[in-house]
Amino acid sequence: MNKKHGFFKTFSVSIIWLWLGIFALVPIALIFLTSFLTKDTNNIVEFIPTFKNYLEVFNHGYLKILLQSIYIATICTILCLIIGYPFAFTIARSKSKYKPLLLLLVIIPFWTSSLIRTYAIMAILKAKGILNTALLAIGIIHQPLQILYSDTAVLIGCVYDLLPFMILPLYANIEKLNHEYIEAAKDLGANWLTIFIKVIIPLTMPGIIAGSVLVFLPAMTMFYIPVLLGGAKNLLIGNLIEYQFLTTSNWPLGTAISVVITLLMGIFILIYWHNSKEKDRESLA
Amino acid sequence: MSKFIRNFYTSCVYIFLYLPIAVVIIFSFNNAKHSLVWQGFTLKWYAVLFHDTALLQVAWNSLALAILAASIATAIGTLISVSLFRYRFFGKKILHALIFILILTPEIVMAISLLLLYSFLKIPLGFWTLLLAHTALCIPFVAVTIYSRITTLDTAIFEAALDLGANDLTIFHKIILPLLFPAIVSGWLLSFILSLDDVIISYFVSGPTFNILPLKIYSMVRLGVKPEVNALCTLMLLFTLFAVIASYQSIFKKKLK
């Protein structure tokens, strides 16, 4: 086998491992290593092994930020599911000649810069922004709503940014839904609600899980959305990591937080892995 | 009636998705410095933008970085997917899993892992650290894009070529590259846009010597909204929109043939 392929195979495989070794495996190992070292004011880290960083993650009020991140990410995932499911269902049931266009319209915003779109949401939600101006003009409200720099604003930005990640796997799943099951259920006298709960939801469960994981993971580590829309007081775990690295220079603590959230996310990634087929994972990009 | 409700609902979601984009574009033509009220059409923010040489320099930096990172990532990503498809080698399953994990790894974790690597190797932050980081970010996405295409190829072609005496290098450039060309193009484009838009990784691994557009926009947005930012963002949006539509068109045309 080896002889037949010869030089080209050796060349490709060496390049691949060299690259992944230096830019994936070594950096991951460095994170893990640093999380067990001691902070040093002059040299960033001192080679004194310790568990202190992990104790600090769970003791220091950082736990509250972690829980807050999980809370925001969960609400965001649920909102995306509630908005995205009927939407994906409608596209999947529309005339097949419109489908590529309808899908393309979902994909386009997700290819454009999410930073710029977040900035646009700022302009909409500001005290003197478009939303307030419009609502005041119609007369629905008499005082401008203070939405920007709140959890609500972070949630709006998060849902807006991640909605396509929910819609696309749901669509892929709902499109494959066999209509005969629904017909059969109808013939057997099931009403609309029963069909939805007993037939449609179980059959589209892989899409629901895939979409939820793809929304939940990035939502957990949002970085500029909380800064721009949440203001200084609504920081999440991503901002905490940044703060440890770039402001207080406490790299060991920053890496310990990263290890904790990566392990936490590993659980969700495993759920996803067990629920998806290889083909679905390939369509991730 | 239910059809009306469905159409109304989908329209609302589309409006939600496109309203912010429309807002940026409309206000880039608004003749007012601070007010969000429409004060008439103007192109002056674009003029301000094109006279800002520092900003143009940053835009060129970003463009050059994205082209280089996308090209290197596409080359390595292609090798990865071809090797995964054709060869048995040490750690193949690990490689497969690793690519999947790298795609789902939070960007901020990837960012600090690279920052650690650079500080460990004592590489000063600047152009090279950004280029390597962006390449590392893009490779898994390219590999996945091309791999999903390569698995649809018929392996009999390779056997026929081997029987006729072609070596692997010949097979690679005479058979694999032409057949995979559309996938390679979309992999490159995806990388290009990932690199052009990346804030998080760039934020950690960039130095004072080499600034790029996403970071520039981030600092402008944080310091307060200037009308030029709208103009800059509009140009960026139109640029990516154009690239995406062009690539989709070429893919759709291929399918029709």
Task: Characterise this structure.
The complex is a heterodimer of chains A (285) and B (257). Chain A is mostly helical and 285 residues long. Chain A has a single domain, classed as MetI-like fold (Orthogonal Bundle), CATH 1.10.3720.10. Helices cover 76% and strands 2% of the residues of chain A. Chain A has a two-stranded antiparallel sheet. The longest helix of chain A is centred in the N-terminal third of the chain and has 33 residues. Chain A is globular and about 70 Å long. Chain A starts with a helix and ends with a helix. Chains A and B meet through helix 1, helix 3, helix 4, helix 5 and helix 7 of A and helix 1, helix 3, helix 4, helix 5 and helix 6 of B.
SSE map:
The complex is a heterodimer of chains A (285) and B (257).
Chain A: H1 2-34, E1 38-40, E2 44-46, H2 52-59, H3 62-92, H4 99-111, H5 114-125, H6 130-138, H7 151-175, H8 179-187, H9 192-203, H10 205-220, H11 224-230, H12 237-247, H13 251-275, H14 278-282
Helix pairs in contact in A: 2-13, 3-7, 3-10, 4-7, 5-7, 5-11, 7-10, 7-11, 8-9, 10-13, 12-13
Chain B: H1 2-27, H2 44-51, H3 53-86, H4 92-104, H5 107-121, H6 127-150, H7 156-163, H8 168-197, H9 200-205, H10 213-223, H11 227-256
Quick one: biggest sheet of chain A? 2 strands, antiparallel
Specify the overall morphology of chain A.
globular
Question: What's the CATH class label of chain A?
Answer: Mainly Alpha
Largest sheet of chain B: none
In whole angstroms, the N-to-C terminal distance of chain B is: 40 Å
Q: Count structural domains of chain A.
A: 1
Low-confidence stretches of chain A: none
Which class best fits the helix and strand makeup of chain A? Answer: mainly alpha
Please name the CATH architecture of the largest domain in chain B.
Answer: Orthogonal Bundle
Number of domains of chain B: 2
CATH class of the largest domain in chain B: Mainly Alpha
Proportion of β residues of chain B? under 5%
Give the % helix of chain A.
over 70%
Q: What is the CATH topology classification name of chain A?
A: MetI-like fold
Rg of chain B is 22 Å
Cα-atom Rg of chain A, whole angstroms? 24 Å
Shape of chain B: globular
